[in-house]
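Fig. S4 source data, part A: sequence.
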Amino acid sequence: MTTTRLRKFFQCYMKKTDSASVITPPWLDPWELPLLGTRYFVVDLESDGLQRKNNRILSVGAIAVVEQTLRYSEAFYHVLHHTGDLQADAMLIHGLSPTALQQGDSTEAVLGALCEQGQHSVWVGFHAGFDALLLQQAFKSVLQWSCEPVILNVAEYLPALFSDHAATQQNLDDWVERFGLHAIERHNALGDAMVTAELLQIVLRKATQQGITTWAELRQLRQIQRKKRGY
């Protein structure tokens, strides 16, 4: 994405008012949207640590889910340009070397391309709160956006639909094993995005079988299940 194209793209999401610039994010608000017929954009990030603040995004992976089908031709993966020290434990998890990061793409360009490819979609992730915070920090520091990304967290809805396994399935690996899925490469942003997209397909299928048609209805089911379990 060239600098000129990037600027034009971001201008589409910013309207000048008398007081300030108002951001119109590329992601959709899911709550009144139907489960089926909605375009989804499944996102995963790898970072240089697990703290909730001051971490850097190292790589981004994403894939679209349209009509319950993964769009492999639209897979998105970029390593971001970074120099300097990395936490050793983080390197062991994501496997990104200093050389790969030095040769990575600019954060501004990657964020722009991510928003362009994910526009008009409901964004989805697994334990998405941390990724949403990383994006929020990056949007503010790099693009001067003050916005909170709305990313549906598949990890919240799986226990609601499969309550008999809620106590034992907690992380991504647990649910991958539960459904016999094949993760292409764990702790790779694109690999994790793809397996999360498969879990999204399972959520959509199971919810539809139970007569649930909107995300608002599924959120209500999640709240009921939480009350039953006492948390």
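Fig. S4 source data, part B ends here. The first strand starts at residue 14 and ends at 16.
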